[in-house]
Amino acid sequence: MKKLFALSAVILAFGCAELQQVAQQYPQLGTISNADIAAGLKEALNNGIKKEVTKLTATDGFYKNEAVKILLPAELQKVDQTLRSIGLSSLADEGLKVLNRAAEDAVKEATPIFVDAVTKMSFTDARNILMGNETSATTYLQNSTSAALYSKFNPVVKNSFSKVGADKVWANIITRYNQVPMVKDVNPDLSDYVTNKAMEGVFKMVAVEEVQIRNDINARTSDLLRRVFSLQDN
User: Fold this and answer.
1) 2 in helix, strand or coil?
2) Nearest CA to 37 among 215, 216, 227?
3) pLDDT tens, position by position, for the chain (234 residues)?
């Protein structure tokens, strides 16, 4: 059971050829072949991306999901408070909403990038994953792909800022705030902030599926998943 649980974590974090490579290092388990184990765990990973990450792309996928909702960075909380104190609460509300809208739009376009990054991961740090906890595959995924994902994700976020009108809303917010007497001007890099928060949300939702499919029999939505993950229940 412990070996299968650890194997699940490894293969959830790897794709393509690595899936078969990992599976072949273990003997046949029951009546389920190594190939079936690899295929089942790859299916589990795909489910995490398609099911949980897709939720983030819907309207309010970030904004009304308290687990991943993007809040203002510390440097902009004073901007929010100041705007509300001078009767501009609706502008402050809109500023927060468009940040989340940009993330929702960006994840929609960047999901294929995320999938591609997952499937190209190299076979390293496997021992640490084997000894890890029930979200160790997601943690490894985050640590191993964040830099590459950021370089691809950030331009998508910048484009999404323009697409959903976040750039204009925040240009107006910053201008209005900087006109208030006795305040220190601000000029935050919001695309960088939203990029990091959107990526954080993606990894968090993948972890949700990773934990669920290991612990909830009802989350195993195909015969292959049920047969593969039943081994860890023994």
Assistant:
1) helix
2) 227
3) 444 444 444 434 444 444 444 444 444 445 666 667 667 667 777 777 888 889 999 999 999 999 999 998 888 888 889 889 989 899 889 999 999 999 999 888 877 887 777 666 554 543 455 345 788 778 777 877 788 888 888 998 999 999 999 999 998 888 888 888 878 877 778 999 999 999 999 999 988 988 888 788 998 888 888 887 777 666
pTM of the model: 0.73
Q: How far apart are CA 16 and CA 120, in angstroms?
A: 7
Q: Please give the Cα distance from 15 to 17 (Å, whole number).
A: 6
Which residues, at least 6 apart from 225, have a Cβ–Cβ distance to it below 8 Å? 40, 43, 44, 47, 213
What's the token pair of residue 18?
Answer: 């690595």
Whole-angstrom distance, CA of residue 46 vs CA of residue 100: 24
CB atoms within 10 A of CB 224: 18
In the three-class reduction of DSSP (H, G, I as helix; E, B as strand; rest coil), residue 133 is classed as coil
Distance CA 25, CA 32 (A): 15
Q: Residue 234 is encoded by which pair of tokens?
A: 């023994």
Residue appearing with tokens 């979200």:
135
Give the 3-state DSSP-derived string for 167-226, with helices as H, strands as E and coil as C. Answer: HHHHHHHHHHHHCCCCCCCCCCCHHHHHHHHHHHHHHHHHHHHHHHHHHCHHHCCCHHHH
